[in-house]
Amino acid sequence: MTAIKSVIHALGLISLFGANWPQWRGPEASGVSAETTLPMEWSETKNVAWKTELPGRGNSQPVIWGNRIFLTAEVDSGDAPATHKAPIHHIKGDVFLHPDSVGVNKLHRFSVIALDRDSGKIVWQKTAYEGTVFDYRHKKGSYAAPTPVVDGKAVYAYFGNEGLYAFDFSGKHLWNYQTEKVKMIGMGPGTSPVLEGDLLILQSDDGEAHGSHIVAVDKRTGKRVWRTERKDLAVSWSTPVVAQAKGRKELITTSIEAVVAYDPATGKELWRGPGVKGNAIATPVIGHGMAFLAAGYPVKYTYAVKLGGDGEAKPVWSYDKGTAYVPSPILVGDYYYIMSDKGLLTCFDAKTGEVKYEGKRPSKPATFSGSPVAADGKILITSEDGDTYIIKAGPEHEILAVNSVGEPVYASVAIAGGRIYLRGQKHLFAIRK
Hints:
The chain is mainly β. It has 1 helix and 37 strands. The strands form 10 sheets. The protein has a 5-stranded mixed sheet, with no helix packed on it. Strands 2-37-36-35 form a 4-stranded antiparallel sheet, with no helix packed on it. Strands 3-4-8-9 form a 4-stranded antiparallel sheet, with no helix packed on it. Strand 29 (345-349) and strand 30 form a beta hairpin.
């Protein structure tokens, strides 16, 4: 059995040992797992398979393929030259510097880390980039915020303005792609790479709508395949998703000004609809022939729009409160959920927008940065305090359990092989029955 298990891990097959979690928000980029044997209770020691101290900080979600777990991390490696400065940012023509912008005065080392799934031991750690950074990041964020993507042969890690890097499973550097510099109003990177066939797709929007674009890179060579300008679309931290509609694939992107669908093979625009009105951070979710989009600052707004259009799309339904600044929404079956930054959940009938419940609170005050995940009829939301609330999915709100790992958590949870993976501020936890 051990030998069979090793082969299955090596090949990355879906088996009785569970599916992979290969990208931001999992197999379908939805945050929903097919797992049915997850634990309902844990603590710093209870139901913990292992706990591994991580070198460096990062808010990227763990990705899992077979017997490997991959993470990205950043470490300050000294002071930047005094002459090195960040770009000047403007909002509506006025110079803007966010009071929580940090990082440009330091040198940084960005790493890709591989761990053994069974033991939690670090197998290798490779430096992708070391040096100065182009722009600031938010003090609560990280230059290692984008989640890598993995395909069973290689891991692809994105560090915003500092590039896209590919390593094979043994840690060998394959290639790197130098991204174009865009200004993120001093908040740092957020969007994660999307793997579609042999293409790695990056949404790269500028804070002043100068040079916003979306680009596809060949995963085998690191060479650019296509680039599409996103004219007049301002900064976004949202990760695109690929949807199937009317016999074709659509790459759904969002911004303050517009939702735009592209042909992922060519970058050709297919249709567009109204924007999310606020800062585009949340990842769209797909289902019932629609895309569901949301923003939480400075305007709270969520809406559904039909896929498969060929011109200007209009919302099927919309709602103007309860959305989060950072966490993405989630669709579980027939129900669509939004969460505020304080963990208040609102549930809708996904098809009609009918509110099933509104603003249901966690059992104690908290702040949430990670996005919800779901499995086996349950929704998991994890606070920055490290408390995970397990909530019954469906039209009635019920908190089933609350569990803590005892340290802050800013990253989103990953699920694979009967385990829940929680990236804390200092450790990666593997939770199992």
